[in-house]
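Support request, please re-run this one:
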Amino acid sequence: MAEEKYDLWLSSFPDWGNNVRCRLAQTFGGARNAYLASFKEWEEVLSSKQAEGLRNFTGQWRLDEEYEKMKEQGIRLITRAMQEYPRRLRDIPDAPYALFVKGGLPGEAMPAVAVVGARECSPYGAYVAEKLGEALGRRKVEVISGMARGIDSISQQAALDAGGRSCAVLGCGVDVCYPARNRELYERLVQKGSVVSEYPMKTPARPQNFPPRNRIVSGLADAVVVVEAREKSGTLITVDMALEQGKEVYVVPGRITDRLSDGCNRLIRQGAGVLLEPEEFLEEFLEVFWGIQGRRKSCDAPIEDGKEKNSKSAKSKRNKQSVRHCGAEQSTGEKEALKKLTPEQAAVYGALEICPQTVDRLRSRLPDRYRETPITTQLMLLCMEGLVEQVSPGCFCLKKR
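Re-run finished. Output below.
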């Protein structure tokens, strides 16, 4: 418990990436030793600006008081060093240093499926999400989603109604119910599932928080199902994360005249699995899942299965020959945006071209020191700056001028 107080301190410092937190903890042999280290010792691990920010933050931090607040709200903090840390998350790119949790985490030995889709879904999408969530709950497959209005919350509510479990991954602190209209669902999830976030308590729901949290949604699941998504949809970020993590992606098809189905239909064209009937999908999914579980128990060697091959096949269909964009002058706004980029973002931007490239292709073009960069997260941030555009799931290019 004493160490957990210091883990809370390290996890609550704002605007730090997971790699920085891990580096600090590993260098000093734990969060407690990092907390007790001198400013001079911090400067040996961090930049001067980072060390100064940490000193100012620590001077205002009330170690025991903040820890008691967390416990009073029934929140647990689970770091990578703990056995409780989800196995599914350990090996994903940019794995969270720690998770704030209310309720019980998804069971390691039980199957889990992420259900994602449009917030402003159609009656058709709502119907499919409800039937899918109900089927998953009835078969004891945990539903992972983001508790957003629309497809997310409908599928999670249906899973709970069917006697199953569900986990909500938030883009805010776990003590913040967002959206507020889902308060009843939030309370049910705490009692019959879990609410999870990598963001510290009291963190509000900011737009920039949601793209990174999507890697946890897909990371906690064994497969991802997309019910409805427009061609340029935040849902497709989760698909990109899932493909990068080697997860299977299934899609519910829609009418070609329905803009809410444009993203789904394009994913099918690019090689995603097609979900036509929940029970049929479950039979296929569970057969693969239990087969993998049985092999894990009987063999310590890494498992080669169809998941990685299928996901690589889906990504390979999106590979295109790339040509660097040149000869166009940058606008004043672009020049200012480029000046604000972090070294990691600048490296990713420098690897991009005017023709679309896959995440794997971009990673191979990065300098060695940036190969471990959470590239999809950086791409999403570059898209938000208007410097990059996503032309299809898993494919990015420079913004056309």
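The radius of gyration is 21 Å. The chain has a mean pLDDT of 86.
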